[in-house]
Design brief:
With about 220 residues, the protein is α/β, with parallel strands linked by helices. It contains six helices and twelve strands. Helices cover about 30% and strands about 20% of the residues. The strands form three sheets. An eight-stranded mixed β-sheet has the order 3-2-1-4-5-8-12-10, sandwiched between helices. It is globular.
Length: about 220
């Protein structure tokens, strides 16, 4: 399968890239600074600012994975929705590019805030979401809405409340719109298992034009 990974140098992008390559997929990594990637990986330098340019890059691909997130090294990430909203804007451009290039599928590495924490209460509104992460959660909700309003084949993949570097176990649970919590009350997954679940979905689609989530 030919897969293009947008924003391939972030934590999610790098881990998904590694999982795709380990399974023998033909991958193109798109990054603002592809020098951070191994030279053995086919890469393209781009900042995702143009839908037309993204369409050129993804032409001929079977699927696109968007792992874009606003850089966290900018203090505005934790305080300014107008800064984190670049996530929603990139998503809108990715949607337009997928449509223009007639790519069969877009999978977005999404956010947790819009999952249901309890009946009628989202994670974002539950009181358990960190205040400093409210801007990015708000922008993810806008990106999710843009996907749902689109006419392309999309999948939005929400992580649990915590996602950390860890171990690839291949053992996890999948869910739909409800937050997954383990027996100890933790909602978490490793980046490595998140990538396994995402590539599983690419290979065996089960959530087209839908959202799903993962957790232990």
């Amino acid at each position: 399968m030919k897969v293009v990974v947008l924003a391939a140098t972030g934590q999610v992008g790098r881990t998904v890239l590694s999982e795709l390559i380990s399974r023998g997929h033909e991958v193109t990594a798109v990054a603002r600074n592809p020098d951070k990637l191994p030279r053995s990986i086919h890469s393209v330098r781009d900042d995702l600012s143009s839908a037309d340019r993204i369409a050129e890059i993804i032409a001929g691909a079977d699927a696109v994975v968007s792992a874009f997130g606003p850089p966290k090294d900018d203090a505005r990430f934790f305080s300014d929705v107008s800064y984190t909203d670049q996530l929603a804007h990139v998503t809108e451009r990715a949607i337009a590019a997928v449509r223009k290039a007639s790519v069969a599928r877009l999978i977005m590495a999404g956010g947790c805030g819009s999952l249901w924490f309890s009946p009628g209460v989202t994670v974002l509104d539950s009181g358990h979401w960190p205040e400093k992460l409210i801007p990015i959660a708000t922008s993810h909700i806008k990106a999710f809405a843009a996907l749902r309003a689109s006419d392309i084949s999309w999948t939005y993949f929400s992580p649990p409340m915590r996602i950390d570097p860890g171990v690839r176990t291949g053992k996890f649970r999948l869910g739909g719109d409800d937050l997954l919590v383990d027996e100890q009350g933790k909602s978490w997954v490793s980046f490595e298992d998140y990538a396994v679940a995402l590539v599983d979905e690419l290979e065996q689609p089960a959530h087209e034009r839908a959202r799903f989530t993962v957790g232990y």
